[in-house]
Design brief:
The structure holds two protein chains of two kinds. Chain A is 37% helix and 15% strand. In chain A, 47% of the residues are buried. Chain A starts with 8 loop residues before the first helix and ends in a 12-residue tail after the last helix. Chain A has 14 helices and twelve strands. A seven-stranded parallel beta sheet of chain A has the order 8-7-6-9-10-11-12, with helices on both faces. Chain A has a five-stranded parallel beta sheet with strand order 2-1-3-4-5. In chain A, helix 13 links the parallel strand 10 and strand 11. In chain B, 47% of the residues are buried. In chain B, strands 8-7-6-9-10-11-12 form a seven-stranded parallel beta sheet, sandwiched between helices. Chain B is 39% helix and 16% strand. By secondary structure, chain B is α/β, with parallel strands linked by helices. The chains are: A alpha/beta, B alpha/beta. Chains A and B meet through helix 7, helix 8, helix 9 and helix 14 of A and helix 7, helix 8, helix 9 and helix 14 of B.
Chain lengths: 335, 335
Amino acid sequence: MKVKPKIMKGEELPGLLVNEIGGMHGILHDHVEFLKKHFCLITMKEFLENKKNMSKKVQAVYLWWHKPVIDKDLLQSLPNLKVIANSGVGMDHLDLKLVASFGVKMANAPCAVSSSTADTGMALLLASARRLVEGYHVAVSPGMEYCEADFLGVEVTGATLGIIGMGSIGYKIALRAKAFEMKILYHNRTRRKEQEEQAVGALYCEKIDDLLCQADFVMVVVSLTPQTHKLIGKREMELMKPTATLINISRGAVVDQEALVIALRSGVIRAAALDVTYPEPLPRDHPLLKLKNVIITPHLGIKTDKATRMITEEAVENILAALAGLPMPSEVHPS
Amino acid sequence: MGQRPIYVMAEQDLPGLLIMGIGGTHGVQESLAALLKKHFSVITMKELLENKKEVGKKIQCIFVSEFRPTIDQELLESLPNLKVIGNSGVGVDHLNLKMISNFGVRVTNTPHAVADSTADMGMALMLASARRLVEGSQIAVSPDTNYFAADWLGVEVTRATLGIIGMGRIGYKVAQRARAFEMKILYHNRNRRSQEEEQAVGACYSEMEDLLQQSDFVMLVVNLTPQTEKLIGKKELGLMKPTATLINISRGAVIDQDALVEALQNKTIKAAALDVTYPEPLPRNHPLLKLNNVIITPHIGTATVQATHMMAEEAIANMLSVLNCQPIPSEVFPQ
């Protein structure tokens, strides 16, 4: 008589290390059930409490909002780690070379991210142009009874939009902006194909200066690399029109924040709208928080129910492919 | 000495135009006043009231901007040579058209100048509400904020369903913009649009009930008439999805505001974004001002430098056409 050994269902599934479930930077509760279908979820707390037993089980790590932090110590303690999946598209928080040196693959989640982030960019552009946040305060403030006839914003329809970074997010912004009859200029490491340019009516500016001096709205949509660090500084802002708006949906460090404060205070540019800052959040006494002509949002980027769901689905797809030795949909290699 | 009389005569040749005032909270912008002075002898309400008998005779036109000056019987009786009221803006629900017509005075509006700006505002409010932009901006600057919660989410705009109630010039421009966000577009209108027009924006004609039941975002873009007053009441709000957002860029009175408060408090609908209310502004103790799932803006649908100029130009062209007995581009008639 054969006795079937009792195998706990959870133990069959590969171990997936996550920072925590719920809480400040944890995996969303809504996603847990889906993840548990494919993996045995191990939180950092569980891992640290029982390193000896847990370390061999972990075959994958799912980063949510850049956590857990991947350093040499962690990589050394995970001998069976095969893949790290990142929620989101930016990989600037990861040492790609270090991870690769351990023979670990990496993936990001570009598909889920692009539409939501493009929507965030347009939301900020419109809100800044039409002084929506200021207007809200006028409308609900106990003291304000009238809206001054000279409370005016600037027109979006027909204005010139300069997109710095024309990757998949930048291109989706161009598609949206076109519907507002905006004139679109773009600057990118590489030029897009003619058909792609024509589809959105975008003009390539080989020199970023040409884009900066013509645009009414400058939207920064690059990934953060050593080359794009402080890409927009004093010089770039002074090239911009004094009536222009700067919108940043990439990474805080792409903009020289101190130079931005000066530019906004002295009217070098009209306004700024920042979904990202360095650090996040800014210290509570930072001058950017006090300027009237700035809108700051708490890294809205992809924070929607649908987008976050898609990101987790994309991550799972990548992890399962890596564990099965199959090509990964969105593998990222060190440059 | 020789030049001055000519200047004075030239000014006297220009038809008299009454405006509320220049500058300040309720007056016309300085730059617009300068524009008006090119074609008219501009007279302020203050100047009229100081010498009704003499000054009243000179006035042939009135430029109504932000609903001022108020046109009542007393005013009309004091202006024996009044020929036309040129309204800045497309809505004329604040004007008693029958009464004005009885005095033999024509009324014109500015449908072309308002369309793009108002459509842009509709999109701005939809995106701001969906992505919780105003709430987010408050979190970003609040002294109590020390982190951005990972589970703080908005709703997706891309590929959601937008129901447009009122598919006139402005509604159609909203559809053009929404299409670029890959939104599914339903619309309801007194008259159906042509097949080509529908296909150009991918819009499906719907009965009101179907539109309300299927939409993630419901946008009101009708003009205010006896038929559209309280168009959206308890029944209509009850038909909407509990995850849906109501956006109003038409007139406050199109919505039953008490029913809206109840619907928002009971979570019958998810949120509302209103550029218009009844009255404007709302009394400071109104419940709508306290709900955190409402964005209110102070009727800034056309509040841009460019739009206000275009509106003044359109009004000027309309008024001059009346004085010159030429075809009138945008005359409005009593129902």
